[in-house]
Design a protein that fits this description.
Helices cover 66% and strands 0% of the residues. It contains eight helices and no strands.
């Protein structure tokens, strides 16, 4: 199951992040095609990270409670460009963590562990990304990508 979720997540990341797709992501048909796999991958990661409903909603951009529960039940419809970007960032963080930390348990706990990086101020990264806007997700993604590249 973990293998399939990771493969599906990687495929979604590649489709969402692919530069030539930037213009196509605004197309509702393309977004609808990507939405189901994206939201399933998001919920699988959220389960692995043991996120609360509020943490999940914050990462998704605070959809209405009823909308969140529709997503959770599989009634995704067509996700907004903003929501797909947020999910892409979460998938990228997940992938980077599993590259940086070969122990899957540690990779999945990282988001909730206190962190000494000045960006987090000794608090868990989940507090940072749920307490800010989408830029907080971008910043964590860039931090992890830099660490993958050998930068501290």
């Amino acid at each position: 199951m973990e293998r399939n979720m990771t493969s599906e997540a990687e495929a979604v990341v590649e489709r969402i992040a692919e530069p030539v797709q930037v213009d196509r992501r605004s197309d509702p048909g393309v977004r609808k095609q990507m939405s189901g796999a994206a939201i399933r991958s998001f919920f699988n990661i959220a389960d692995r990270w043991s996120l609360s409903v509020n943490e999940r909603r914050a990462l998704l951009g605070w959809p209405a409670t009823s909308t969140y529960h529709k997503y959770k039940s599989g009634n995704t419809g067509t996700l907004s460009y903003d929501t797909l970007c947020r999910i892409s960032l979460v998938l990228g963080v997940f992938k980077a963590l599993h590259i940086l930390y070969p122990d899957p348990g540690l990779a999945d706990r990282w988001i909730k562990l206190p962190n000494a990086n000045p960006m987090f101020g000794g608090k868990p990264p989940i507090d940072f990304v749920t307490g800010g806007d989408m830029d907080a997700l971008y910043r964590v993604r860039r931090l992890l990508d830099a660490r993958r590249g050998g930068w501290n």
